[in-house]
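Supplementary Data S3. Sequence and structure tokens for construct A.
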Amino acid sequence: MKEKILANRYRLTEQIGMGGMAIVYRAVDLRTGHNVAVKVLRPEYNEDSEFISRFQREAEAASKMTHHNIVNLLDVGMDGENRYLVMEYVQGKTLKTVIQERGKLSPALAGQIAIRILSALEHAHRNGIVHRDIKPQNILVHADGHIKVADFGIARIANSSTLTKGDNVMGSVHYFSPEQARGEGANATSDIYSTGVVLYEMLTGRVPYDGDNPVAVAMQHLHATPVPIQNLAPDVPPALVRVCMKAMEKNPALRYQTARDMAADIRAALENRPERPVYPEKELDVQQPKPQMIREETGRQPISDTGRNRNQAARRRKIWTVIMTTALGIALGVGLFFGITALINNIYTTVYVPSVIGLDVKDAEELLSKEDINFKEVYFNSDEVKANIVFSQNPEEREIIRKGDTVILSVSSGPAQLTMPNVVDMNVDEATELLKRYGFTVTILPVISGDATVNTVVSQTPVANEKVTKDTPVSIYKSGGKTTVPLLKNLTLAEAEELLKQNDLRIGTTLTYVDTRSAKEHGKITGQTPAENLEVMLDSEVSLSIYRYPTDRADYSFEVTLNTAEADVALRITLQADESAVEFESFSHTYPTDMERKQPVTINLPDARHYTCRVYQNGEVTEEFGIGGQ
């Protein structure tokens, strides 16, 4: 993809990285002229729902964060089949490269880098994001010394209820936590454990656990104790060692519970202060020292008091009282002036963030603009939220921000686009199973085809390789074979049934009777649908009309007892000739509850053959007997 223009905006100039999920390019934003980093999902995963979900989770996680120690998201979208994220471009090296080049880092430098990693994590955790893959390879060191945390590709929204298969044990084995090694879910303290491992590596120049295979390393995370830092780097302050080892506690409850606390202890260790001051619940009473205490402290006697001394002291106190009162009044006036000014300034320059979730993006932008709030839209595919609807915002509703600040809007771009697979020439069952795996709703339509095997797909809508979504209705047309309808006129019913069977057709289950004045025509076929010589699918029904001569009609009358008086009864009576597959419907009627329970019924026998008569009430057979025949 070198020198390719992506989405008519980003010119990809060189590949700068490759991971298991995506390829990263340096690119130029043609609109701004700035260098950016474009992460493109690897082509082999364009149809893999699990990797698409991870890629989209990275975008969603990044959209919730704006921080100077995080590689910030600038854009997200699709170009054809290519899913991409646009991030700020960091010119520099990974922390892993720095460690490999320099070996162990000084305690001061390692501590400062760790503080910046923790600052990024504190921001992510406050926004409900767990990184789950903190490692030196994901820490970028800018040429000017800035530290940026990158690659939220397997990050998890902390309140998400689902994880795709394999997500629990993600991250790099040298840096992941014991709970991740056990296959459990990761949380904020898992990121803190990984940060402790990174700090250990910066201080010593090596990872705490290593082995011949990933399983061996994972087992060490669970059970082993690392080589003491002092053995590898004696110059590291003991307080900084304690911070590192507390972060790497195997029990999450014994680690730092927040990134902020760990960062505070690192600062204290670097400044040679107590880790974090512990204040008593109630301050001690402060007593004024007595003269005897002053003498013992200074070794001098207190000056004896006289009336003159008392008068002079009183005047001095009065003068100081006037001076202090005046100074206090001036201070209060100045403070009040600046306080009121700051309050007014705060009122006029800050604003509550309105809720725009559920609004069309244009309406959301209009509402934010009225409040003098800037906005940036980040689009995500969603099967649940309609296109162009805002489903998340950062900062959230009712947070106080300054006018001119930016609110990140997560906007649905509708269902993800898919490439329609080719199912032509596949068996209809295999094709249906494949399409349902994509999430499509499939309609199967049989068509006449003499060239394709029966039940083979001969065409499809939409056609192969067309861009669709899971909501797109899909129709597949299967071969129903092909045969020609024979001429059946003047045949008996039995002869017609046999001829249709020979042509892979079947007789319709309802006969139409046509009265005739010719006794010779009684029982003969007078009409058919479809007509003769028409091409139809195999196993199609052919409906027949049959002559009936009034004096030769074989009527059969009997009485049916309806089963229940509490509900309507659907009565249906059928006839099936011996050695025939066809069960003709001869009578059908629904009797309401107020009808007599015994009802007379008369049915017509189609011809002189022997028939089995079945009586159905509400779909169940209640009687069966034979009638007719020679």
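Construct B, processed identically:
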Amino acid sequence: MTGTSPKPGNLDTFPKLLAENARLRGDKPASREKDYGIWQTWTWAEVADEIRALACGLAALGVRRGDKVAICGDNRPHLYWSITAAQVLGAVPVPVYQDSVPEEMQYIYEHAEAKYAVVENQEQVDKLLEIKDRAPVLQHIIYKFPRGMRHYDQPFLSLLDDVQKRGRAFDAENPDFYDNAVGESGGSDIAIMLYTSGTTGRPKGVMLSFDNLIITGRNGAIRENLTEDEDMLAYLPMAWIGDNIFSVAQSYVTGFCVSCPESSDTVLEDLREIGPTYFFAPPRIYESLLTTVMIRIEDAARIKQFMFHYFMDVAGRVGMDILDGKPISLTDRALYWLGNILVYAPLKNVLGLSKVRTSYTAGEAIGPDIFTFYRSMGLNLKQMYASTEASVFITVHPDGEVRPDTSGTPAIDVEVRIEDDGEVMFRSPGVFQAYYKNDEETKATKTDDGWVHTGDAGYLDHDNHLHIIDRSKDVGKLNDGTLFAPKFIENKLKFFPHIKEAVAFGHERDYVAAFINIDLESVGNWAERRNLAYMGYTDLAGQETVYELILDCVAKVNRDLAADEKLGGSQIHRFLILHKELDADDGELTRTRKVRRKHVSEKYAELIQALYSDDDHCAIEAEVTFEDGRTDTITADLKICEAPLAAAVAKAAAE
């Protein structure tokens, strides 16, 4: 049963859009999931039936308008359906990052006052059982997969299939309930509550209305000419605003199909099988893909290495012009055509990006070199400037005006202005309603006339393209007055496949210094090809040859910085390779992989002090947290390396 379709023009909630999609394209694919190597597909009519049963089941359990329903797990169709089912009842879904440790979950469950939870499996149930005594509002937990839970007999646990069975019985007894519930909500009602990553403090609950999500999603679809024939792979956290726009809002608005991978370990394989036409990934994904490519090239035969580098040089010279439809010489066009046959097309096919028509990146700035690499081989990659408080879209590259040094022009119906102090502000239909239970932060972030403070420093150029320099609070100056933009420097470092993460320091200091995390896969592969033995990350990171490898990367970054008029004085003087990877479980990163600078600075204050001294080593002892909650202590004696400055290198060459 799909219920009565709402009248066109009144499609202002996801449940109403669901009914319309079931009416217009009921037999077209809406959701896919790979299970045990086989893709299962649900049509829009089948999805509507599943959601109807689940919504009625939730109602039978006691879910009422205004209740908070937490959703947690990997990307699964049933979890996406749970979001819409809660919205049918006027409840507010609250997606939670699935890799959160119990303490992080406890804060969100307590703060959101979540009465119900729909989770994926035993792992998530166990986390909730651990914190349930500290989250007294939580009444009922629903789980999808029963594996390993045969002996779980708590009365507040229910299998999702059983809830749906109960819902179908409830629906039969109350045939008007579902359609009446759908009609009770409107565009101005709260559709979802998403928590910020908590880079600078406790995560804040961002309340977004149906209008925020639907209008913004529709405007984005209009700008990119999205249709019901797009294919999207949903693999990013459901608790992140981007996934809720790309995998939910735009799917409901246009009617395209969203596919869920079998697991996080099979994403690349599933990406190749699905062949998405519309793709989003944060910079770390593109960095990871590039690392995989470079590792394979280093392992390839010499002729293949030569061919790759030769044709990538051709692509770097003319690829972006070809993608933007600009004129180039016949010779270059012929070389690029040959490079596409031999290198670019096979490479995109291996990465699963052959069919991509539009690809986005956002979350934080992507390194210009990485951005250029992908566009030069024909991937229509665009950078956008986005935030949870904007329902994603603030600025995005328009076709024909894609530049690696900008975040594009304002999206449809979005206004952007720059304050006197350089802060970027915006106003749009996607502007959030408020922070949950935090009027003070709401007033500090959103003005009475709807303008939002981003906290980012930037400027608009003569083409109305937005340039983001860095977080306003992070941009500083060295003691000699040189501009210090840490994220800009860090992104240049992370272009190299051997460097996974970097943290730069320099504000109110005499020079720039940096922490570096090596990429264990990339450097490990490099070490194995040289028969270098190591016993794990800490051992590998401390080896002299690895320091020489990273020193070469830092030297190249310094040469790039030297060519920048504003940042030439912020070259990296000293660095060290950290003894452990920065980890969200240790509080050093957010769940969206952003560095918590304040926490890192406080935790490793001794190392920072050593970087700004004459010491060439520094002993460190640090506690690490494993996935199962166990802790251990790592001790190491870290080498501090002097980096060559571009001016010094030039002088030496002249001599």
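The radius of gyration is 26 Å. The longest helix spans residues 302-323.
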